[in-house]
Every structure is written in structure tokens, then in C-alpha cells.
Amino acid sequence: PIEPWHIGGPVVKGFGRGSKVLGIPTANLSTKGYSAPLSEHPSGVYFGWAGLSSQGLYKMVMSIGWNPYFNNTEKTIEPWLLHEFDGDFYGEELRLVIVGYIRPQANFSSLESLIAKIHEDRRIAERALDIPMYSQYRDDPYLKGSS
Ligand code: ADP
Ligand code: MG
Hints:
Elongation Factor Tu (Ef-tu), domain 3; 23% helix; binds adenosine-5'-diphosphate
């Protein structure tokens, strides 16, 4: 188990690959101001809770890292909110409580195997977040933007 940690900020534009190439939208957060927590936590796939200003509270599964499949040179924070939204929410305040770690960053030989792995990560996150030791954090006041 990991010590839960928080990150948040406005949803920024990424490369637009999540939805278009993978069919998996990720609401990118700026890494500015998060160099300490990012260097303290290994690259990989995490899960937790997401508070999206005005809209609500959602489960999320998140990649932190360089996306080796795409050869990124900068570390990105990319949560996939496990909810069907009607549209985009760029610029909205997104707050995350990260409560668990699934796996290290990995490279994949095909897009299909990458997509399959992300869906497996999603199922793990969905189930884990129903367990009291992880579900309790949905009440974290940080998610509501009041602290
Ligand atoms: P980008 O590279 O700009 O992050 P993506 O293809 O990853 O683009 O799509 C992410 C955007 O899609 C988010 O910024 C958000 O506005 C929107 N979006 C819609 N549904 C979701 C969702 N379930 N999870 C995350 N982002 C979503
Ligand atoms: Mg994205």
C-alpha cells in the first residue's frame, strides 16, 4: 500500500492521442509545481479518486511517466476518469487523491497490447476502489476544492 497523495490543477491540452489513438481519454494535468511528488513516486499506473469542479466525483486510473510507446521526453500526469462525459472539460479544476499503485511503466510491442493492458488496469482500479481501504478516500475534502 502507498501513502495517499494529492495533485490538482486545471485540465491542460496534451497531444490529443488518448482519445484518438487509444480510445481512452486522459485529462492531462500540468506537471508544473509537482516535481517533488513526481520524483518521489515511480512512473507507472496508479488509481484513486478524481474531483472535477462542478461535475462531481469519479474513480480514476492514471499513468504517470514518459509513455514509452510514444517516446515522450517529458513526464506526464494522465488520469482517465471512469465515467462517460458528454464532452471535453479543458480548463476545469481537477483534483486527484492517489491511493494505490498497480504496475510500473512498461513498453508494448503493439497498440493493441497497450490498449488491452490499460483496460485491465481499469478493471483493477474499479474493483480496488470499492474496497473500504480505498473507497474511504472519496470523502477526502481535497477533492471538493475546499482545501
Ligand atoms: P489530451 O492529449 O489533450 O489530453 P485526450 O485525447 O487524452 O487529449 O483527451 C482528454 C480530454 O478528453 C480531457 O482533457 C477531457 O477534456 C476529455 N475527456 C472526456 N471524457 C474523459 C474521461 N472519461 N477521462 C478523461 N478525460 C476525458
Ligand atoms: Mg490526455
